[in-house]
Each structure stands twice: as structure tokens, then as C-alpha cells.
From TrEMBL:
Gene3D superfamilies: Divalent-metal-dependent TIM barrel enzymes. It comes from Candidatus Infernicultor aquiphilus. InterPro entries: AP_endonuc_2 (IPR001719), AP_endonuc_F2_Zn_BS (IPR018246), Xyl_isomerase-like_sf (IPR036237), Xyl_isomerase-like_TIM-brl (IPR013022). Its cofactor is Zn(2+). GO terms for biological process: base-excision repair. Residues 19-202 form the Xylose isomerase-like TIM barrel domain. GO terms for molecular function: DNA binding; DNA-(apurinic or apyrimidinic site) endonuclease activity; phosphoric diester hydrolase activity; zinc ion binding. The keyword NAD does not apply. Belongs to the AP endonuclease 2 family. This is Endonuclease. The keyword Lipid biosynthesis does not apply. Pfam families: AP_endonuc_2. Signal peptide: none annotated.
Length: 209
């Protein structure tokens, strides 16, 4: 069984592996930079080497490792300046994930439409994902995008599995997009995960046997 948590990268990304081991994790999630700033982190080659070495030498075999994007990214924004800034920042995050991990996964919140409505926001996200997929393919990035379901606060999209499905179906390269299912967010959004019946109904198949 894989058990992990989000681990701090304070003092260097390589330190996250040490912290995960101290917590007894055999999988983990990290940021690749300060999640509250637009400033892109330039990863030092020695830091990358230490991170990879720490993973390779981990006695707990920490794998897979997931990277979460900055909270500032909004792929549904109606403001073009923020929209394209988010797309560019997302691609930089993909580059770092590709550099750090042999099998890179990048988790992201889909975005918030602000005041334009669900349909507008979903189409905006689909457009952004296709731009990102095309540009990252040109860069030969292996990073797989994982859309995380949200709690549905404010105008944030992705709080229903149907919304996430539409985003994925709109992507031109669907094999490079998956879902990160956050159970806490799902419960807050109205999915009953308190019993077996609710879990089976939510997921759509029997995972309890």
C-alpha cells in the first residue's frame, strides 16, 4: 500500500525525500517552487542530482512522486494577461517535473472562471490545456497532467467529475491527462464517501473488494 503526504521543500527540493522518509512515506507530493509566487525557480544541477540520488537510495522506495503547480495558476481566467501568464508558468512547471522525475506527474487545480460562468471557464481550460500539450510536446516533455477535483468554493471549476471529464475529452492528446482524486475536496463538493455505497457510486466501479 502506498501512503504519503505533501512534503515541504524548504532548504532544497532534495530535503523533501529525507522528510518523507522520516514520516514513513513511500510516496509523496511536493511543490517544485514557492507556490505563492510567480517567480520561477531555476533548479541547481547539484540540487537535482541530490534529489535523484536521495530517491534512488531511499530505503522506503518512494515512488511515485507528484508535483503540484503553483496556486496562482488559473487556466480559466477571463483576463488574458493572467491566462497566458498561467499557461507559460504551467509549461515551466512541466519542465521542472520532467527534469526531476523519471516518470513526471504534475497536479493542478483546473481554474476559476471568476464571473463568466461554468461553460466559459471549461472552454477556457480546454483551450489552455491544448496549448500546453502542444508546446510541451514540441519540447519533448514526458510530464503527465493530473487535473485535481476541487471543493467548488467560489467560481472554481472541477468540483464535479462531469466537469473534469469534459476537460479531458476536450484535450487533443488525452493520453497525457489524468485525474488526481482528492477525497476531502470531493466530500466538500457533495460526494458521499462516508460509506461503501457512496464510494462505489462516486467512483463508478467496485474498488472495495
Amino acid at each position: 500500500m502506498k501512503i504519503g503526504c505533501h512534503v515541504s521543500i524548504a532548504g532544497g527540493i532534495d530535503n523533501s525525500v529525507i522528510r518523507a522518509e522520516e514520516l514513513g512515506c513511500n510516496t509523496m507530493q511536493i511543490f517544485s517552487k514557492n507556490a505563492a509566487t510567480w517567480q520561477e525557480k531555476i533548479l541547481d544541477q547539484e540540487e537535482v542530482k541530490r534529489f535523484k540520488r536521495n530517491l534512488k537510495n531511499s530505503i522506503l522506495d518512494i515512488d511515485p512522486v507528484f508535483i503540484h503547480t503553483s496556486y496562482l495558476i488559473n487556466l480559466a481566467s477571463p483576463l488574458d494577461e493572467l491566462y497566458f501568464k498561467s499557461i507559460n508558468s504551467f509549461i515551466e512547471e512541466m519542465k521542472r517535473a520532467n527534469l526531476l522525475l523519471a516518470v513526471p506527474y504534475l497536479i493542478t487545480h483546473p481554474g476559476a472562471h471568476i464571473d463568466r460562468g461554468e461553460e466559459y471557464g471549461i472552454q477556457r481550460i480546454i483551450r489552455a490545456l491544448n496549448i500546453i500539450l502542444e508546446k510541451s510536446a514540441d519540447l519533448n516533455l514526458k510530464t503527465m497532467i493530473l487535473l485535481e477535483n476541487t471543493a467548488g468554493s467560489g467560481t472554481h471549476l472541477g468540483y464535479t467529475l462531469g466537469q473534469l471529464q469534459r476537460m479531458m475529452e476536450g484535450a487533443k492528446d488525452r493520453k497525457r491527462i489524468g485525474i488526481c482524486f482528492d477525497t476531502c475536496h470531493a466530500f466538500a463538493a457533495g460526494y458521499d464517501l462516508s460509506n461503501r455505497e457512496g464510494v462505489e457510486k462516486t467512483i463508478g466501479f467496485n474498488i472495495c473488494q
